[in-house]
Amino acid sequence: MYRRIAADIRRRIRDGDWTIGQALPSRRDMATEYRVHEQTMRLTYDLLRRSGVLDGEKGRRVTVAHPPAVRTLTNADLPWPYSTETTDTRPRPATEELAARLGIRPGVMLHHETVECLDPGGHSAMIVSSWWRGQRRPHTSHVVEVGTAPLTTEQAHALGLLVGMLAFRLMRTRLDEGGAPVETADLVLPVDRWLIRLRSR
Q1: CATH assignment of 2-64?
Q2: CA–CA distances in Å: residue 196 to residues 1, 23, 58, 145, 160
Q3: Residue spans of alpha helices (H) in the chain
Q4: Per-residue confidence at 151, pLDDT binned at 50, 70, 90?
Q5: Which residues make up the CATH 3.40.1410.10 domain(s) of the chain?
Q6: What residue ranges of the chain are covered by domains with CATH 1.10.10.10?
């Protein structure tokens, strides 16, 4: 329910019901308007804050935020220049897809790391999940496949978006000097916050 209300508030902001910097009604008033419990509106406002639609601290009035910056990705192997949060480091067995990307057998245990990349305003801009076998090794090159994929529940929650929304999915595989894969990663980028621009060398 709170995700549906959040989507409706996004629509109302686009339609001009509230403008940038303008305060929204209190949670109590909005709960009355949408005929839901005040806790539902708390979840709604929290979601809209995480996604950068609203500004304001918990328990205080919230205002319409400036739209999230649209960034351009030209190199999927550059380090993230702002803050990050590591959210998961549990080892994982290699799926068929990961095994093919790393040139190993399915089921082999892999090291894993999921990192949430935050923009200067503290909003989640990208999620990077990496997998590798043994110790992390240096790489000399990388290859990237670009596609789209629906957001999982965890990804949508972190990005402040709806489950199932399409996002860019960049499958990056790092290679050693001999061209063998040493690490692979999925970079998940919200389509409303990113442009992908490929450059020739």
Answers
A1: 1.10.10.10
A2: 33, 34, 34, 12, 21
A3: 2-14, 27-34, 38-50, 96-102, 153-159
A4: very high
A5: 71-196
A6: 2-64
Q: Which fold has domain 71-196?
A: Chorismate lyase (3.40.1410)
When pLDDT is cut at 50, 70 and 90, the band that residue 50 belongs to is confident
Cα–Cα distance measured from residue 149 to residue 168, given in angstroms and rounded to the nearest whole number: 7
The b/e string for 108-139 (b: 16+ C-beta within 10 A; e otherwise) is eebbbbbbbbbbeeebbbbbbbbbbbeeeeeb
User: How many H-runs (helices) and E-runs (strands) does the chain carry?
Assistant: 5, 11
What's the pLDDT tens digit per position in 89-100? Answer: 999 999 999 999
Alpha-carbon distance 149 to 165, whole Å?
A: 8
Look-up: residue for tokens 């708390």? 42
